[in-house]
Design goal:
Helix content is about 15%, strand content about 30%. It is of the alpha+beta class. A hairpin with a 2-residue loop joins strand 3 and strand 4.
Length: about 170
């Protein structure tokens, strides 16, 4: 299956525990938690979109390299979202009150049943977009094709304040 097909299940049903044990998605790793700015999640991207895999471990960069192919067996996992970002994890913990539709997969034996590392290839190159395309993507949110993808915004000028979300690669020094 593609990431878009998985996201379409969420769009149709809302939070959903995947029952199909044969459903597998694959994508290239676009996140790196080396600097600590991405917490216990792995972002993968295919030609159709991006999804966060809620692997509840830190230092994921040691095991999942930028550009590495990752295969995820979705059966038994839950598709949800947080602040518009699609997430694949375990069923949400119903004993606490929270805003999360999924929980972390933080037991190594369960991770090993669902997440498989593949070959390391070149990291994905960011999509180059304009400021207007960025504004349109933010407006489209979860339904937009750029939501969560690795991008570079060209032609942007800054005022006194700068707000940025960088997912994927660290800036070169």
């Amino acid at each position: 299956a593609t990431i878009a097909e998985l996201k379409a299940l969420y769009a149709k049903h809302g939070v959903l525990k995947i029952q199909d044990d044969d459903m597998v998605i694959k994508g290239k790793v676009i996140s790196d938690d080396h600097s600590g700015n991405i917490y216990r999640e792995l972002y993968i991207q295919d030609a159709t979109g991006v999804i966060s895999i809620k692997i509840g471990l830190s230092s994921l960069y040691s095991d999942y390299k930028l550009g590495q192919m990752v295969y995820v067996r979705c059966g038994g996992l839950t598709i949800g979202q947080y602040n518009g970002m699609p997430q694949l994890g375990l069923e949400a913990d119903k004993t606490t009150t929270n805003d999360y539709e999924t929980s972390y997969i933080d037991v190594q034996a369960i991770i090993d049943q669902h997440v498989f590392r593949g070959e390391i290839k070149d990291p994905l190159q960011p999509y180059v977009i304009t400021e207007d395309e960025l504004k349109a993507a933010i407006k489209a949110g979860f339904e937009g094709e750029l939501w969560g993808k690795l991008v570079t915004v060209e032609g942007v000028s800054y005022s006194n304040e700068v707000f940025a979300l960088c997912i994927g690669q660290e800036l070169a020094h």
